[in-house]
What does this fold into?
Amino acid sequence: MSLPKPDELISDVKLHSTPAKDWMEIKPELKKGYYLSIVEPKYLEELDLPHMGKWQPYDEKWPLPDDWREKVKEELQRRLRINRGFKLFMDICVRCGACADKCHFFLGTGDPKNMPVLRAELVRSVIKGEFSTFGKLFGRLAGARKLDEDIIKEWFYYFYQCTECRRCSVFCPYGIDTAEITMMMREILLELGIGTDWGIKPVHNSYYIGNHVGVPPQSFKENLEFLVWEFEEITGIKIDLDKYINRKGAEIMFVPLSGDYFAEPGIYTMLGYLVLFHYLDLDVTMSPFATEGGNFGFFNSLEMAKRLHSKIYDEAKRLKVKWIMGGECGHMWRVWHQYHNTFFGPIDFLEVPKSPITGTVFEHAKSNKIIHIVEFTADLIAHGKLKLDPSRNDHLVVTFHDSCNTSRGMGIFEEPRFILKHVCNNFVEMPENTIREKTFCCGSGSGLNAGENMEIRMRGGFPRANAVEYVHKEYGVNHLACICAIDRAALPTLFQYWVPGVEVGGLHELVANALVFEGERSRDVDLRRRPLKTPVKGVD
Amino acid sequence: MNVGWSFLIFLVLLLIPWVGVGVLGLQGLFVTVIPYVCFLIFIVGLVYRILNWAKSPQPFKIPTTCGQQKSLPWIKHSRLESPFNTFEVVLRMVLEVLFFRSLFRNLRADLQGKKLIYGSAKWLWLGAILFHWSFLIILIRHLRLFTNPVPSVIQFLDYMDSFIHSFGVPPVYITDILIIAGLSFLLLRRLVDAKVSYISHGSDYFPLFLILGIVITGVLMRYNLKVDVYAIKQLTLGLATFKPVVPEAKIGTIFYVHLFLVSVLAAYFPFSKLAHMVGVFFSPTRNMPNNNRADMHVNPWNYPVKHLTYAEWQERFREAMENAGIPIDEEAEKEEHEWYTIYGPNKNLNL
Ligand code: HEM
Ligand code: SF4
Ligand code: SF4
It folds into this structure.
């Protein structure tokens, strides 16, 4: 799909003026390049989900089920009843507007319905209009309206222009989290049978094959074989893969991300994990079934999130490991950190994670028995267990992108920075208001990283890209490190568009680059075969 | 348009006591029945809201983590932004409720050419703080009307609030000036700022008009249209002790307007956005600790779900795995598991 040039794309964005018409009177106009396609009904069927047959969002009349109105009302009320957060967020917004210009989709489109407060009003107005006496009595004056078919289109359009990034929630005086609202609204759309192609197919793959991209176990192994072969070509070091796949009785089960063994540049992060395991001779293995730490189910419904991740603890049990470690991924860690324990706990068949190398007991994960590989590695470095030569990353000027999920849904800020500072010499932060808890989403999270909605992705990613552009021009940053597989898939496209010249990669790629192996041989390229600034002098 | 209607409703409310007392002479109705009914609505309504929130379960522990998590012992965790225990949560909440900490973070985004700039934007915070704190202090000061003798704390507050008198300025309360400043700012902002104006409903302007109305009638009563304070105190004490008396002395219609608007505010409170006063305490993104992996949160409606088991999966890929040299788990057994779903054709659970 052809996009306008970067300079033209956002020329229509006005952050301080609004349409003449009241937002309730503006009918949803589904712009091409902004929305996702609808999935083939058979995928929904095979996942026991309702569907609306074969149709697409651009169809004038949507084939909604006959009782759609009752269904929507019933499902709204159900969620108000069983989810305090949702109910509260519907009740207490004062429309102070503090969240208005915090959303990257608003900053990239200027569309007022992308202000988090209005995104929420899209539902709040219906709840008032359908269920509240005040709302029924005063109508528009109280911000209330009645349900109609256009509203369903509007919901579909705008709740898939929210990446559930929680940036708005940081600034709201009541912590109103539009991400929670989006989650509930996507569930309700799903109840009607509305599921997106990019959102549901990965779920189907993950459910039946084991990972989002649908890599079967034999290809999983082949891909890893290719990676360790590459590594051997470059360094002469041979990694034996067999013990890392489906071996019973290992101490640790590691769960990777499909993005990391499927395509560049994620594969170098996967390689980074394997290199680290090999370096430590770690007693770790991976399940060929639980080959996906990420969870696209989460972008559709909480139930689906649970359906996909049941396999993780089940596999840990079957493989008789002691504890679980997870790779570098954003939404995966939102789910693992904030939801897993509630979904699957109490986890009493595993042990509290303890690093076999340093003896550190990870008390903060004592209940759900899962730690982040970045926590694991930071602990190794702090104990001096890794011999690192940061100059091996001197060809890179690195910045760090805090992924929205790990930032605002977990709070892992220092561990990755600690690692970065030990594995490279040139580390530059992006401007203060665009990092840490105020970080900007890549614009493609929560199941939006498809091809057909490229324009909204480029617009939504604009604030992130803009901050990268700043450090690129100011400090010559040419590499962005992140701990999210969706970032690694989405950001290269984003940067190609907005800031060519900045590459993207995971943290453990840089760790592996910097690792000094005993008796290693000389080389003059990094794991991606990019020339090193100062070649490694080995013992050969 | 929203503003207009909401102002009109406010004007009507203003006229009601004017006509009711000034013309029809229904003092009794306006000083007894209406305040009592409205305050009853306030209490019952608020209790209803609170119970309603309290009894709906919070399924997941979802704090918005705005700072470093507690993980490794040598990494300093942010006790306020990523509270790990109840004490830290309380600290975070206190700062939110008393000082609007999240609002203090506010930024303003501007697009200059192709550059996004984020500037500091503390005005909203300041206006909100001025308004809320003044409101609170004024409310407490009012207790002198409902107590006899007046507790010294309230006397002291009264004294502090009016200490600028000693500089020879006219006898005004500081909070009176500040609340009018705060409210005017909030109202102006709503009218002038394009985005805020665009998101505002009539019901967003209404409380501002109402509270401004209350403040202005109050101030007028004190500084211009002098009312009989002794008679008022008789009346308010009577109300507070459930022995209401309709004062014989003429108080001045302005007082009835003031009291009526306060009654309306009370009755309106629980059913409007003003309920944020209580709601803020329930906010799951602020009142829960970020200790999910250390301390399990229970969801009362958690249910087992349908999922594929390893045995089923392995059966499907057995041959490919054997060819690829991936170990087969011969012990894996096919097991049925109990499951529920709230979706689609197999729906078997109604939450
Ligand atoms: C625990 C007590 C309370 C807290 C923490 C609180 C907090 C806040 C915050 C943070 C705002 C957003 C900023 C703003 O728009 O001004 C706000 C708005 C507002 N509050 Fe409160 N509030 C409390 C009690 C009250 C009470 C008792 C009233 C009045 C009866 C009130 C009336 C309002 C109004 C009218 C607004 C909207 C202002 C506007 O239109 O811009 N609040 N509150
Ligand atoms: S910041 Fe919170 S209260 Fe203010 S408008 Fe946004 S959601 Fe509503
Ligand atoms: S969660 Fe993120 S994408 Fe969604 S409305 Fe809030 S800021 Fe925008």
In short: Residues 310-346 of chain B form one domain. The radius of gyration of chain B is 29 Å. The CA atoms of residues 3 and 350 of chain B lie 43 Å apart.
